[in-house]
Design brief:
Length: 375
Amino acid sequence: MNTQHSDINKFIPFGESLRGFANQRFISQADIHRILKERGIFTLNQEKDYTVPILQTLLLSPHEFDKIRDAFSSKEDNEKSFSRDIVWNLNTQIFQTDILSVDVDAFIKRHLPTCKLEKPIRFIKYDNNPNHLIAQFTIERHDINKSWYEQTNMFQGSVEFVNEKGKGHLRITHTAPETKMLAEEIAKQQIERYKENGSIPANEIPKKIIFSEFRNEDRFTFFFRLTTHLENEVFRCESIKDISIKPQEDCVLPNGIEWMNQMKKILISGDALDKTFFMKETRFHRSLVLWNVAAQFSYKYKGEEGEMTVNLGFPDYNKKGDSAEFEINIYPLKNRRALDSKNKKKLIAQLLSELDKQKSVVYNNFLNYLKNKKR
């Protein structure tokens, strides 16, 4: 989340300083156009390339600048979530008062020197459930090498442990690379402590969903089961909107998709992409690498209804290749009933949790499907 400069109430930027600030992606062209219109300045083109140069020639009033900086500071970061299955020893209750606090000060000093923790990290019960714990945290990142409006930012993350009669999972939610690194360290420390007191078997390693687990054709099946074939009372997949795909290297492409042969990466946006011939016809799947899908879902959850775009896949595939881990995030969410930012964020977190549960069900069923397929 963007954090206002410590002296933001003491100055009003103009000229080049205002240009950089107004060009931030968090400030929409509508925000700029609204201020110009109130000044009696109308433009035929509302693109920032035209309106920001006009804006930077003005001396803004405190009230006008407040409108821009409020737009900048009110935008929340998208939460991304991934989970790993864990086996707990029988009759284990994971709420244990002597291991709820986690000390990560040394880790932050060594690996995240530009960050500081807002408050100490401690696990608490989620919905008063002693077998569902969550540790939420916020870090402040300060980078003096960036422009005045980008120097300080706040990022949130969380780590959850769930135990359901011996079967459970670790869930990590992050909003930046720093929160992901810190969450991994928190999870690592906590798992070691659970192993030391016998709550988790000593040789247990949380099970990740990794890109290399799937053959090309099986990855298509997995994505379809999570989207257009998902059977659930909360979610309904309306269509697949975006896909990230490329042809398999060192492979002769079949007739019909040979036009992809010279392409290294294809990002396709549209409506009902699941009905396109290369997604629909299984004969192409062996020759195509699919690593990310964005799908339009409708939802009904605890009295709330609306639509959302769910991005699911292996976002680090281009960096990590076969070792990339599966993640889910929601953006944007349009709730039928207007919600303030706090309740909207809470709803997104709840929907992410429900999606993660469905992912675990689909994944375990998929593993059984692969076993039966090999027989």
